[in-house]
Design brief:
Layout: H1 27-40, H2 43-54, E1 59-61, H3 73-85, E2 89-94, E3 97-102, H4 104-114
Antiparallel strand pairs: 1-3, 2-3
Helix pairs in contact: 2-3
């Protein structure tokens, strides 16, 4: 069973808010969305998310992700943990390996938030 380190379901976190161009969001809404955007703001994490999403079957073993970077395995693990804690990835342990999958619902919510307002 796939599960994230954090308990709350964040699919609606960004969807809680109107598109940024439609009307101002509240402080509480900004407090919910900012950690997602902060996690995505790092180039390594953005690439990791993209690598996981583009991997065959939409999931990737953590052991296969380090080759794309000139970084140590502990650094890659740290960035994966940040994405996991933000609710952008799910992790499933299979023996000694951890497999990651992008939580597409969260990305869709973020996309909705930053989309142009209708009209």
């Amino acid at each position: 069973m796939s599960k994230s380190v954090i308990a709350p379901d964040l699919v609606g976190t960004a969807a809680c808010c109107p598109p940024l161009l439609a009307r101002p969001i509240t402080q509480a809404q900004a407090d919910h969305v900012a950690p997602l955007l902060k996690a995505l703001a790092d180039p390594v994490r953005l690439r990791l998310l993209s690598l996981v999403a583009a991997h065959a079957g939409g999931e990737a073993c953590g052991c296969d992700l380090g080759d794309a970077f000139d970084l140590s395995q502990p650094t890659i693990s740290h960035h994966l943990k940040v994405l996991l804690d933000a609710g952008l990835l799910d992790r499933e342990k299979r023996g000694v390996w951890a497999y990651y999958r992008v939580r597409t619902g969260v990305l869709a919510s973020i996309a909705q938030l930053v989309a142009d307002a209708p009209g």
